[in-house]
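Final report, closing paragraph on structural work. Over the funding period we assembled a curated collection of sequence-structure pairs, and we close with a single example.
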Amino acid sequence: MNILVINAGSSSLKYQLFDMTGKNVMSKGLCERIGIDGRVKHNAGDKELIHEVSMKDHFEAMSVVIGLLTDKEYGVIGSMSEIGAVGHRIVHGGERFNKSVLIDDEVLAGIEECVALAPLHNPPSLSGIRACMSVMGGIPQAAVFDTAFHQSIPRNAHLYAIPYEYYEKYKIRRYGFHGTSVRYVSGRAAEILGKPQRELKLIVCHMGNGSSVTAVDGGLSVDSSMGFTPLEGIPMGTRSGNIDPMICEYLVKKEGISISEVMDILNKKSGVLGVSGVSSDFRDLDQAAKSGNERAKTALEIFVHAARKTIGAFAAVMGGCDAIVFTAGIGENNTGVRQRICENLEYMGFELDNDRNRIRGQEAVISSDASKGKLLVIPTNEELVIALDTEAIIGTEGGGAFVPGS
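Its predicted structure, as stored:
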């Protein structure tokens, strides 16, 4: 059976087509600049196509995707009927969705209700779902929520110390994000370590332009650095991470700007970009720091300090830690950041092997033989999790989701 995985952004649509027999990616690509001018990057085995094509909305983008997947030269299937189901990545499912579900009118309404919690992410996801429904007819579709994995976070960790009525009325709480990635990585870590997840205490560092740290105890998320929104937590590419809330009012008064403008600053002009004044890309920061740029050095130091502090806090929450896992763009590829984060963790029983740490973008144990705890690099595979969940939801013979704790 073939399953199409869709990840829709405001002006983009990523896709991967899986052959679930061997869990292989048959084709993948990206529609970008939707509603502007339009461009498609399409890969099918050793064939690659970059195509300028007008796409006024996600409906037209989906038509382009199906056209490419069935194209005689660049396609991998004969017709759309060879796609058995579609799985969609949804960032926010609120408290309503604690697992992946088959999409129907009720589920669509539930995702719509969560738009207020994720105004930048859920609307394009809805557009992607509706586009698939329009273009692909009655092919089953599933929703896989990033927040679902974190629904196991206990009340003492997910509630904020604000008047309880705001939780009751508006569901203001810690939700956590990157859950689909953490599910895959924590499950794969258990396989590498040769132990069931229920016996492990893991700290997963998902580090990209958006970064989060998750405490996974017995296969369940028990705390996350991200909160009500993906703005909370450690500093990121352009996001501030944790700050004193009073800074917001202070900037409104001092700068004569609105709270919306402050939020724009905290989301898009802060993080390592705001501190360094150089870039949100850690590769640029590394180069600038090596050239003597002090602000770039400071930005990297702030990021490392926050990550290390969160790791220590989460080890305390779980009463120990068996392994620390690095994943996503920075976690998988930036050897220097990994090295700095792991410095001074010997008190927790972790010792980095600098030679093993030289790898990029591949699975590896990077701790020394003498290390009591394991340090791992595991490239994430959210799309595979979505495909597996979709397969399990529609009840295909022999299908199975990637279940934490197994």
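The chain has 14 helices and 14 strands. Residues 346 and 389 are 38 Å apart (CA to CA). We thank the funder for supporting this effort.
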